[in-house]
């Protein structure tokens, strides 16, 4: 089912909060994922088409080409092999937290650094460059002002451009070096790195902090994640749905759930609302989207969330909220926490 919705440029399009309609729209190649077709910028502001390699914003066949090249790097098996890496990174951050003593801001001490350090490992950022890279990655995922975020994003882009050159010249044992051995150009590789950072950092950091909050609020939450990390994490993904919606645009006139949609009409798929309606332990939640653009990093996200939350619960079985206020950091595109003070 579709209901009418107004878009920032004045376009009258649609939205859906219905599971079956959402899956149908997201699986249908007659809907485009190109942002410049989505009516999301205010009237008069043009959105640029995707740069080479920025495949999240592309349709088939360009999207398919990049997706195929990357898929083998993100298999369930490969991601499971990373569990030990997450455990080590989580343990290092928990050591630092323990040494600092309570109260601690879990967002700053754990939820932001763990995904940032994981991505360093995966992209093969050298030890000497870690501090620089991690600093900018954390600013990008932080609650700082827009200018600082934009500057750090540009710094990461420059850094990735140089990193790609370095991996071409001297490959090491990491995903970027693997990809540098394919037909991809430097520009494409740099932009793929930017997509991975843009899609994988803030999402995971916010899921870690919101997930931890739920475990602390629910009696027995910490014990539950240790007893059954897989279903607990799926439930947390469903409940929080940090990417609350995705948008598509019809490439031709077509019918959706009995409703005529014109070419150029946008449809907002309300992932968060749909996931709320599914009920506890529902299979097939849409926290990672659906169809051709379904989250490429979902197994990596699951591995990180399970290993990191289990490590947190095991280290501090008596972890509790310190202070009565939780600082939320929700914006239109993302749900998350700015600060989560905890003690033990
Ligand atoms: C809990 C954490 C995460 C959540 C909730 C999440 C959610 C999503 C969603 C909803 C989409 C679909 C976007 C659309 O259809 O327009 C997506 C796509 C994507 N995600 Fe994730 N994501 C997470 C973590 C990650 C991680 C860790 C990575 C990799 C480092 C990653 C990489 C990607 C990429 C590359 C895409 C684009 C795929 C494509 O266009 O083919 N994500 N993610």
TrEMBL record:
PANTHER family attached to this UniProt entry: CYTOCHROME P450 YJIB-RELATED, P450, PUTATIVE (EUROFUNG)-RELATED
Keyword Iron: yes
Pfam families named in the record: p450
UniProt-listed PROSITE patterns: CYTOCHROME_P450
Family: Belongs to the cytochrome P450 family.
Source organism: Allokutzneria multivorans
Keyword set, alphabetical order: Heme, Iron, Metal-binding, Monooxygenase, Oxidoreductase
Highest taxon in the source lineage: Bacteria
Metal-binding found in the keyword field: yes
Coiled coil feature spans: none
Segments traversing the membrane: none
Official protein name in the record: Cytochrome P450
């Amino acid at each position: 089912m579709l209901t009418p919705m107004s878009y920032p440029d004045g376009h009258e399009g649609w939205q859906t909060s219905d599971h079956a309609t959402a899956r149908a729209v997201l699986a249908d190649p007659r809907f485009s994922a190109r942002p410049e077709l989505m009516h999301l910028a205010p009237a008069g502001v043009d959105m640029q088409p995707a740069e080479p390699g920025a495949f999240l914003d592309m349709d088939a066949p360009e999207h398919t080409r990049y997706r195929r090249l990357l898929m083998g790097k993100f298999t369930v098996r490969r991601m499971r092999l990373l569990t030990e890496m997450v455990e080590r990174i989580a343990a290092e951050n928990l050591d630092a937290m323990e040494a600092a003593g309570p109260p601690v801001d879990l967002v700053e001490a754990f939820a932001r650094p763990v995904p940032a350090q994981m991505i360093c490992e995966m992209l093969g950022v050298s030890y000497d460059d870690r501090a620089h890279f991690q600093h900018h990655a954390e600013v990008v995922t932080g609650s700082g002002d827009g200018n600082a975020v934009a500057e750090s994003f540009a710094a990461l882009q420059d850094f990735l451009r140089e990193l790609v050159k370095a991996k071409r010249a001297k490959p090491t044992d990491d995903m970027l070096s693997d990809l540098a051995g394919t037909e991809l150009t430097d520009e494409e590789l740099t932009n793929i790195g930017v997509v991975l950072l843009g899609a994988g950092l803030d999402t995971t950091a916010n899921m870690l902090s919101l997930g931890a909050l739920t475990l602390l609020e629910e009696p027995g939450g910490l014990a539950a994640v240790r007893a059954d990390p897989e279903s607990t994490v799926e439930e947390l993904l469903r409940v929080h749905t940090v990417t609350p919606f995705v948008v598509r645009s019809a490439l031709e006139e077509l019918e959706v759930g009995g409703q005529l949609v014109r070419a150029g009409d946008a449809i907002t798929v309300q992932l968060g609302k749909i996931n709320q309606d599914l009920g506890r332990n529902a299979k097939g939640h849409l926290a990672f989207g659906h169809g051709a653009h379904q989250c490429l990093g979902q197994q990596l996200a699951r591995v990180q969330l399970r290993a990191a939350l289990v490590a947190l619960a095991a280290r501090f079985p008596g972890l509790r909220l310190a202070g009565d206020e939780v600082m939320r950091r929700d914006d239109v595109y993302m749900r998350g926490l700015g600060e989560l003070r905890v003690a033990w």
